[in-house]
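Hello,

Our lab assistant flagged a job as stuck in the queue for most of the afternoon. It eventually completed. Since we weren't sure the result was trustworthy after the delay, we are filing this so someone can double-check. Below is the sequence as submitted and the structure that was eventually returned. Let us know if re-running is recommended.
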Amino acid sequence: MRFGSMGWGVLAIAVAAASPAFADDDDENKPTPRSIIENAPDSDWRPLDPENTLYMDLPSGQVVIELRPDFAPGHVARIKELTREGFYDGLTFHRVIEGFMAQGGDPNADGTGGSSKPDLKAEFTRDSAEVEHFREIGRDRMAPRLGYVDGMPTAAAPEGLRSFLKGGRVDVWPVHCPGVMSMARATDPNSANSQFFLMIGDSRLNLDQRYTAWGWIVDGFEATRRIVRGEPPSRPTPIIRMRIGSDIPASERADIKVLKTESATFIDYLKADGDVSEDGFVKDICEIKVPVKAEGELEL
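-- returned structure --
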């Protein structure tokens, strides 16, 4: 059917007249990201494992980190070992770059030191067949597959390439978004020892698959905003102490639950927030906030 100019004008007027009413009705009935999370069933929330929870006390507050042995078992074991020895207590963040990262864990406080323990073998990626709970949410210009593994932002190669890849391995790796914890190293990929850094900005392009990510900040990221910046900082921020959750009396542990990122609730939340387009393009994985309940209060 062909429309003349008069027909198009009438159609446009009709649509314009009808649109506001339909839009208002849709907006009233459309669930918000917060309402979706508030109505999530208890089964969609998971507690932290005390043995894989790290408490970092800073002058500005406490930072709670979930350790991820599913991605970096060797590095997590080292962090636990040094933490339990009190190695990190009193050390400072000696290199802090705004919009990038905050580096600490060096007893020399200048980037040259480490522990007396042997250096660690790189754990940049894992085979996706070895990682459970990977929930793919889409793709972007940097990765063909993006998603989460129990809250950790993650990228992966296409699963369909397994039969064509060397050793039949499909790599999956954590992405270096704000809040991700990673290990510092020298030029040698297998030279990480005690120094680590926490992500302040998005550095996926420079760091992914080149540095070992071993955890993510579940609660207390606000406290990292007050870490003094500089190379070196004029007044370096100290780590007052670091502890493993299972070494702390249960009454003193933070009551934290994380929304299961493999749940239907999480996908509904992403859609309501407009984080993934209809064709599966993830707008910015580093801007997505995984919902957390801390002491019963919802954090989005």
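-- support follow-up --
The delay was a queue issue, not a problem with the job. The result is valid. Residues 5-29 form the longest helix (25 residues). The chain has six helices and 17 strands.
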